[in-house]
């Protein structure tokens, strides 16, 4: 999944000392734990990179034990292919969540493409599923519940 606009609402704050702050939704934190316990591999694929020190994306990934992190990524389809290969899962059973036009190539190759309700209009049009939640407000929880519910129903 993308980070800004999916796990966050896309807003960031700069402190007087240049430090950067973002708001993450705790229900998404819970969802990532549920996904991990269910054996679903997770990747963060972000266009953001940090020139100085550890990025917020990496700190988030480390805290939540997300092993697959692609930072400074502007070719998200390639990153999604690498993630699928690394986890041994075909793209047909891979979900990608994105909110802006940079996410469209990855969404086009994923088995399930998802957009937050407040995504760019082109992304909303391309998504197979649009969440009720907006970015940073439980999008990932909604998708994980959807996927886990579907896998439970299939048993």
The dominant shape is globular
Q: Which fold name corresponds to the CATH topology?
A: Rossmann fold
With helices defined by DSSP (H or I, 4 residues minimum), what is the helix count?
A: 6
The first-level CATH class is given as Alpha Beta
How many distinct beta strands? 7
Estimate the mean pLDDT confidence. Answer: 92
Question: Going across the major beta sheet, what is the strand order?
Answer: 5-6-7
Strand content: 5-15%
Write out the CATH superfamily name.
HAD superfamily/HAD-like
What is the CATH architecture assignment? 3-Layer(aba) Sandwich
- Uncertain ranges: none
Secondary structure category = alpha/beta
Terminal CA distance: 26 Å
Structure described in brief:
By secondary structure, the protein is of the alpha/beta class. The protein contains 6 helices and 7 strands.
Provide a descriptive summary of the structure in words:
- There is one protein chain.
- This protein has 155 residues and is an alpha/beta fold.
- It has six helices and seven strands, in the order ββαβαβαβαβαβα.
- It has a three-stranded parallel sheet with strand order 5-6-7. It has a two-stranded antiparallel sheet with strand order 1-2. A two-stranded parallel ribbon has the order 3-4.
- It is globular.
- The mean pLDDT is 92.
Describe how the helices and strands are arranged.
Layout: E1 12-14, E2 20-22, H1 26-37, E3 43-45, H2 56-64, E4 68-70, H3 76-87, E5 95-97, H4 104-109, E6 112-115, H5 121-126, E7 129-130, H6 139-154
Parallel strand pairs: 3-4, 5-6, 6-7
Antiparallel strand pairs: 1-2
Helix pairs in contact: 1-6
